[in-house]
Structure formats: structure tokens, C-alpha cells
Amino acid sequence: MRRHFLRLCIASSILLILGLNLASPGQPGKRPPRKPPNGNPTNPDDPVPEPPSPPAVLVADPKFQNVYNEFVSRAEKLAEEYEKTKQFDKAKASWEEIARLVPNYEKAKHMVEQYNQRETVAEKRSIDILANKDWQDTGVTVIPGKPIHITAKGTWTFTLSREITPDGIEIPKELRDYPLGALVGIIQTTDPKEMKAFVVGSEKSFVADKGGKLLLKMYHNNPIENKGKLSVDIQGTFEKSPK
Length: 243
What we know:
The structure is a single chain. The chain contains four helices and ten strands. The chain is of the alpha+beta class. The chain has two domains: about 120 residues, no CATH class; about 120 residues, CATH 2.60.120.1250. Helix 1 crosses helix 2. The longest helix has 23 residues. It is elongated, with a radius of gyration of 25 Å.
């Protein structure tokens, strides 16, 4: 909801800029070329680098081309203002609106991709997930619309101890959803009906559609007899809880 509202605000600002331009005479001006930033582009505090090549012709009609040029120039300036004040979500949303309204503008697509790449490595947390514990708090709170990448290494021992007859045993219903002993996750929300476990396994990437604490565990209905642990790394854009 927050991201949808943000996109509506950015779109309104861009369309207002475009409308003001159409209502006033004159030729669109050219903005000076932007100097490439210094430092590591993956640092969240660094501006996102722009592609070196100028934009291609967007439309065949010269008058419409002028409108596009002015629109893109003013919308880019808005995105740059957000970058300077470190409002990176708004800057990204500005570039997304440009790419949506002018889909063949390569620079806008490039900038959106740069922001997406930066979000995948913005934060990192490493933890151990124990085999003999139920849901374990990772210290990560996922953010709707932001990427998360999880990798797990190591081995653990799955134990299922039951007294059985010669007829054997069927796998309990509560253990039929996912592979036995797999690393699974869940996003803890205020509404239990929205909480649904998912398989993580050795690696999983996703973009959360809702926010909440990320919990992990071995898939088992009674983990107390299990042994071992997995080393888990979590990368992406998320909020960290104190360790």
C-alpha cells in the first residue's frame, strides 16, 4: 500500500510537470551532462551511475519528441533531487514512472536496473538455524516490494522416532507439504491467516508482497530430537533487529 501510494505521488508530480510544459511556449532546454559519481556504486549512500550514451529518438513526430525531451529532462531532475537527499525509494519510483510512460527510453530502464541491483546487496545478515528448535527469528524484517536472497550451507540430522507395527507408518499429514527436513521460512504478520510457510532449501530469492519478521526452521512437527545446524546468509533490502 505504501509503495502504491508513493508511485501515485511520483506519477502525479511528473504529469504535473509535463502539463506545465505543454501550457507554456518555447523550446525545451538541455540539461548539462551529469558527472559520474565516485566510489562504490553498490554503496546505498552513493548515487546510481547513469549510462554514458544519450537517449535515442523516442518518437517520429518532432513536436512530440520535444515534449518527450522536456518531460524526461524535468522528471530526471526530480529523480536527481531525491538522490541528493538520499530518498532512494522516491528516486527509483521516479525512474520507474519514466520507464513506464516512455518505455523505449533506455536510460530509465538502466537506472531502474541499477537500483534493483543495489537493493539486492543493501543489507546482509548471517545466522545459524538449529535443527532442534521451532521457528527461529532471523533478526530480519522484510519490506514489501524489496528483494531478499537466502543461502544455506551445512547439514543437519532429521529424526523421526515412533513405535510402529509390522504394517509400517504413513507420513503424518502435517509433514506432507514440503520435503522432510528441508529449511523452510515464514513471514510473521499480525494476521495468522496471511502466514504461510515456504521452502527455502539451499537457496531462495523472492520479493516480499507483505512485511514482517522472517522466521526459519527445519520442516518437522517435533524437532526436539533433531541435531545439527545450518549456516544461513540473508542479503537484500530489509530492516535489521538488534542481535
